[in-house]
Design goal:
heterodimer, A: 156 residues, alpha+beta, Ubiquitin-like (UB roll), DNA polymerase, domain 1, five-stranded mixed sheet, 5 helices, 5 strands, B: 722 residues, Aldehyde Oxidoreductase, domain 4, 3 domains, seven-stranded mixed sheet, 27 strands
Chain lengths: 156, 722
């Protein structure tokens, strides 16, 4: 039994110790917003936050999660009100949408440590997230827009 | 002339379903309307079906049934926009329901319930506006009867009918009565000047669910009591299972069943990870089949040898313009003052959708539900019925969102094993291919050898242009009765946009042992590479500016010339920054007209792509914002294929297994994209695929401008220039 929190809720999961967090989230906890893309941390579709840092959940085994705090796309906000989600909606970033949970989680993590990223900061932080639909130009713009929304929120 | 929908005719993907009615045991269609209960919540709400696409709830909810699959291209927004325009409702009120299999949902341009060929909007353009207008008239008639007034004194707006006498009722209040009225045959559609929604950049209806994790892809389907499965596929393409030792796998926790199927061994477990670990513990002896020796050298020696055969001329095709049929290519070449020959070679390319192939099936004694991201609902139904031992009418296909399609989900190869597994264990089963399965068992874009022979007169005027294509067939797998040369692999050349007195197109079919498939833009990318590279080479031969040379060959075609004019302005053609070089490519395809200019520089002998400018005239747009994202999408997809796309085989096995060895474009590698949509009131053209083909030739033409080196084979990476 491994105990940790997901989106602020305590969870205890009984599964093989090597089960990746991705499949714990999807099959055991029913949180299917986090996607399987490659299984080797190459595409970023499975990105979640563990203790506030972006990780690829497809390679992180359950046994490493004891006491950790996991945040998934479902935990960003109750009503799509997170600045990154608002920016994503404003610019209609997603196409097929499959990679977008991972893109958004990487973007949120970037803005937490770098509230005013340059284009090259964005490139560096998001280069691990593949999108086959080519939403990249809009992802770039949406991250800058989200940074703006976050700044507006801070300076009333 | 230039707006004729030529390529919607023979040898397109459209035909494969029209002519393959026998595929998978026969497509028996019944007009099945969606379950009305699905759209209503709570006992007090009833809902009325006004036609196959529309139901209105007593709570004023508007549900639109969308019969094309949403794979990123925006049909869940564009198609409802057409209906909502005439119905007079706001987009924000609309709920979407994916259509079941049904006659009403056949794409007339494709001859089946198919999402492909970039024609969802062209097919729906009149159909859905008419459906919206009919429903509006029925609602107005119902209101007029209720109020005992003349219908002409009533009007519909924003989800309500109002009368000049001051009466007013919501659509929800009128729907039940309206649904009992006869459907009016003739309705007048709005004039474009009155469009409120069409042509406006409205927000996509599918975006909210795609930013909070609630959007449901095939991978996300959850059913009570559902088990999880994966499959071991024969590493050699076309091989089969000889024997399986499943003892170790069956002893592993959670494992419920190990079962060989036609192309592999399925493992069913309580959770996916258990199934995957058990699969890896299977000891399988494979019968590698006829491709055990197949590698790229063998493929290319077959294609090259076949190029010596004369090929079958496609000049008889209805799709080839009369002006191109008028001349005589052999005479033209004989009389030419100068000839030009070049051979262009295109490799196998993988679809690599972000969502690996998967399917969820729930087989019961009397029926079966299949939940799948598919571009071909009827085919999914047919193969599921066969696997379940049921009639097609007993199989309900529930189309989820597609985590990328690109033509990969025109195939149903991943459906039967899920159905067979569900039937065997007597529970719903979700079967997921791993990324490695997906990458190594794709139906790849066929390799093609495309040889251009052209002739010029003594003034450097292009008098003859001919192309001989050698490639395996895509069409014949779907339609074994298909006759050469009318195959999907030659489709675009029939649309050859340039005026030449003598023209010929020949095809030699050469199979390579493995099945090949439709990949976003199909023939257009390889054909466009041969056409646009050769036109560029010929322009250089006669020392003409490549854009000016194209302009001369497109004289008298106003839409083509307008696209060239705008791309010259937007790309700053001829005025690139110092050290930067430009290349252009043009295409007329999917009844759209498109040009791209790539701008590159050389840094330490390596090519850097700085910018791609793209201009399109795709006729009337439904949502220009979605058109722009489709253009960006096509460019990124085309860049990946041009730069790195190369599937290689050794001993019948595909060597690329994941995103580390099948490289795709990442954000940090993105050049500046400048896309521009020309405002037009011509009939809507396609946009989902049209931006892919010009990428490779425009980039290679820019590389020629920068280096003098002509790339006649792809990918560009193989030339060590990137």
């Amino acid at each position: 039994m491994v105990r940790f929190t997901v989106n602020g809720q305590a969870q205890s999961v009984e599964a093989d110790a090597d089960t990746p967090l991705l499949w714990v989230l999807r099959d055991h906890l029913g949180l299917t917003g986090t996607k399987y893309g490659c299984g080797l941390a190459l595409c970023g579709a499975c990105t979640v936050h563990v203790d506030g840092r972006p990780v690829r959940s497809c390679l992180l085994p359950l046994q490493a999660l004891e006491g950790k705090a996991v945040t998934t796309i479902e935990g960003l906000s109750r009503d799509r009100s997170h600045a990154v989600q608002r920016a994503w909606i404003e610019l209609d970033v997603p196409q097929c949408g499959y990679c977008q949970s991972g893109q958004i989680m990487s973007a949120v993590a970037l803005l937490q440590v770098n509230p005013s990223p340059s284009d090259s900061d964005v490139d560096a932080a998001l280069s691990g997230n593949i999108c086959r639909c080519g939403t990249y130009p809009r992802i770039r713009r949406a991250i800058h827009r989200a940074a703006e929304l976050l700044r507006e929120a801070k300076s009333p | 002339m230039s707006s004729r929908p030529r390529e919607d005719r023979s040898c397109s993907r459209r035909d494969f379903l029209q002519r393959s009615a026998a595929f998978g045991g026969g497509l028996v269609l019944a007009l099945a309307l969606p379950d009305l209960k699905a759209g209503s919540r709570g006992a007090t709400v009833s809902s009325s079906q006004l036609n196959a696409w529309l139901r209105i709830g007593s709570d004023d909810s508007i549900t639109i049934v969308v019969d094309r699959s949403e794979m990123g291209q925006g049909v869940y927004t564009a198609l409802p926009t057409l209906l909502a325009e005439e119905l007079e409702v706001d987009l924000s009120r609309i709920k979407i329901l994916a259509a079941p299999v049904g006659d009403a949902y056949v794409n007339a341009l494709n001859g089946g319930q198919v999402t492909g060929t970039s024609n969802s909007v062209p097919d729906a353009w009149e159909k859905l506006r008419k459906a919206g207008a009919q429903a509006r008239v029925m609602l107005i008639t119902a209101a007029a009867r209720r109020w005992q007034v003349d219908p002409s004194s009533c009007r519909a707006s924003n989800g309500r009918v109002t009368s000049t006498a001051g009466k007013s009722a919501s659509y929800g209040e009128l729907a039940e009565a309206a649904a009992r009225l006869p459907v009016p045959k003739e309705v007048r559609l709005k004039s474009p000047a009155d469009f409120r929604l069409i042509g406006k950049p409205s927000a996509r209806l599918d975006t909210p669910g795609k930013v909070d994790g609630t959007a449901e892809f095939g991978l996300d389907v959850k059913l009570p009591g559902m088990l999880h499965a994966t499959i071991a596929l024969c590493p050699e393409l076309g091989g089969t299972v000889a024997s399986v030792d499943s003892a170790a796998a069956l002893a592993m926790p959670g494992v419920r069943r190990v079962m060989p199927t036609a192309n592999g061994v399925v493992v069913v477990a309580e959770h996916f990870w258990q199934a995957k670990k058990a699969r890896d513990a299977l000891r399988i002896e494979w019968a590698p089949g006829p491709n055990a020796q197949l590698d790229n050298a063998a493929i290319w020696s077959q294609l090259t040898a076949a190029a010596a055969k004369p090929g079958t001329s496609a000049l008889s095709s209805d799709n080839v313009a009369a002006s191109l049929k008028a001349g005589h290519a052999a005479d033209g070449l004989k009389q030419a003052a100068r000839t030009f020959t070049a051979v262009y070679e295109l490799p196998l390319v993988a679809h690599a959708t972000m969502e690996p192939m998967n399917c969820t099936a729930d087989v019961r004694r009397d029926g079966c539900d299949v939940y799948v991201g598919t571009q071909v609902q009827q085919m999914a139904q047919a193969v599921a019925a066969e696997a379940a031992g049921l009639k097609p009418s007993q199989v309900n296909v529930h189309t989820t969102l597609l985590g990328g399609g690109f033509g990969r989900r025109l195939e149903v190869d991943f459906v039967p094993a899920a159905v067979a597994a569900s039937k065997a264990v007597g529970a719903p089963v979700k079967l997921i291919w791993t990324r490695e399965d997906d990458m190594t068992h794709d139906l790849y874009r066929p390799p093609a050898r495309e040889a251009v022979t052209a002739g010029l007169d003594e003034h450097g005027k292009l008098t003859t242009w001919t192309l001989h294509i050698v490639s395996p067939s895509i069409t014949s797998r779907f339609d074994p009765t298909n006759k050469d040369p009318f195959d999907s692999v030659i489709e675009y050349v029939q649309n050859f946009p340039y005026a030449v007195p003598n023209f010929d197109l020949k095809y030699t079919r050469q199979e390579i042992g493995i099945d090949v498939g439709y990949l976003r833009s199909v023939s257009h990318a390889p054909n466009c590479f041969a056409i646009e590279s050769s036109i560029d080479e010929i322009a250089a031969l006669v020392s003409k500016d490549p854009l000016e040379f194209r302009r001369e060959l497109l004289a008298g075609k106003p839409r083509h010339l307008q696209v060239l004019k705008v791309i010259a302005e937007r790309s700053g053609w001829g005025h690139a920054p110092k050290g930067h070089f430009q290349g252009i490519a043009f295409m007329e395809g999917y009844t759209s007209h498109i040009a791209q200019v790539a701008e590159v520089s050389l840094e330490a002998g390596k090519v850097k792509i700085h910018r791609i400018t793209c201009v399109i005239d795709c006729g009337q747009t439904v949502n220009p914002r979605i058109v722009e994202s489709q253009l960006e999408s096509g460019i990124v997809y085309g860049l990946t294929a041009a730069l790195w796309g190369d599937v290689t085989l050794r001993g019948g096995r595909v060597q690329q297994r994941n995103f580390n060895d099948y490289r795709v474009l990442r954000l940090n590698e993105l050049p500046l994209l400048d896309v521009y949509v020309i405002t037009s009131d011509a009939k809507p053209g396609g946009v989902g695929e049209v931006a892919v083909p010009p990428v490779a030739p425009s980039v290679c033409n820019a590389i020629f401008a920068a280096t003098g080196k002509r790339l006649r084979t792809l990918p560009i990476a193989a030339h060590k220039l990137i």
